[in-house]
């Protein structure tokens, strides 16, 4: 008798696991209808859902409340959301400065939105929240790749150094042929690459200063690979001269 009771309990556990798996699959289908899936689902249970972003360096934990009468999500009663908690797992001491900058900008965006729970009170709003976060993560990830590209190949564009301090990028350009050496500092924010970047210039050698840089930057539209295009444009316009 004890065995049959245990078997029945096991069967119930299996049925419950199967139900949760079905529920998770259905929820995933809805979530993946959004184009940007920069997230990875780590856990989906009755209590919570856990998502990872950016090579597991950012985690979002969504705590579920009770089901909501009359509202459905993935053919199941929708759930209220009690909280959305973001956590960083980046080791800032070990990580390259470009990764630290990317992480800062992502959390700048997260904090700028205020209470996520107010914007996402039920499961119904979760896909949009994941989409918004993914969009920023995607842009920041591309920025990280741009910074790595400039640090590796900068010499091709007369870029001596690309130094990152907080959310600022200092670009040191130098050319003996053009008799010029100057430092361009760009202030990055969560809006990158859709907003024009504030900048300042420090001239070390030669005549290239703020006026010359401003003229070049005014012709570089914001958008995809903005930072890379700024560097290439400075190289073409100030170091190569008219063709």
Number of strands: 8
Would you list the SSEs in sequence order as H and E?
HEEEEHHHEEEEHH
Strand percentage: 25-35%
Q: Into which percent range does the helicity of residues fall? A: 40-55%
Which of globular, elongated, flat, extended, rod-shaped describes the shape? elongated
Q: What is the assembly state of the chains in this entry? A: single chain
How would you classify the helix and strand content by structural class?
alpha+beta
The mean pLDDT is 86
Biggest sheet descriptor: 4 strands, antiparallel
What number of domains?
2
Which segments are poorly predicted (pLDDT under 50) over 5 or more consecutive residues? Answer: none
């Amino acid at each position: 008798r004890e065995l049959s009771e245990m078997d029945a309990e096991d069967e119930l556990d299996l049925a419950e696991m199967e139900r949760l798996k079905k529920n998770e699959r259905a929820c995933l289908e809805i979530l993946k209808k959004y184009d940007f899936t920069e997230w990875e689902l780590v856990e989906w249970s009755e209590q919570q859902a856990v998502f990872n972003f950016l090579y597991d360096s950012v985690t979002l934990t969504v705590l579920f409340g009770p089901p909501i009468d009359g509202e459905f999500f993935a053919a199941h009663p929708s759930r209220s959301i009690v909280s959305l908690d973001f956590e960083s797992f980046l080791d800032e001491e070990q990580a390259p400065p470009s990764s630290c900058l990317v992480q800062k900008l992502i959390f700048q965006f997260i904090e700028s939105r205020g209470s996520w729970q107010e914007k996402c009170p039920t499961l119904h709003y979760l896909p949009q929240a994941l989409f918004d976060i993914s969009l920023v993560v995607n842009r920041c990830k591309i920025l990280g790749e741009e910074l790595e590209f400039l640090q590796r190949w900068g010499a091709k564009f007369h870029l001596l150094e690309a130094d990152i301090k907080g959310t600022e990028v200092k670009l040191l350009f130098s050319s003996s042929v053009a008799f010029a050496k100057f430092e361009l500092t760009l202030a990055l924010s969560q809006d990158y690459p859709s907003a024009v970047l504030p900048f300042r210039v420090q001239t070390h050698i030669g005549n290239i200063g703020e006026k010359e840089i401003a003229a070049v930057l005014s012709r570089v539209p914001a958008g995809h690979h903005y930072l890379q295009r700024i560097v290439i444009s400075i190289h073409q316009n100030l170091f190569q001269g008219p063709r």
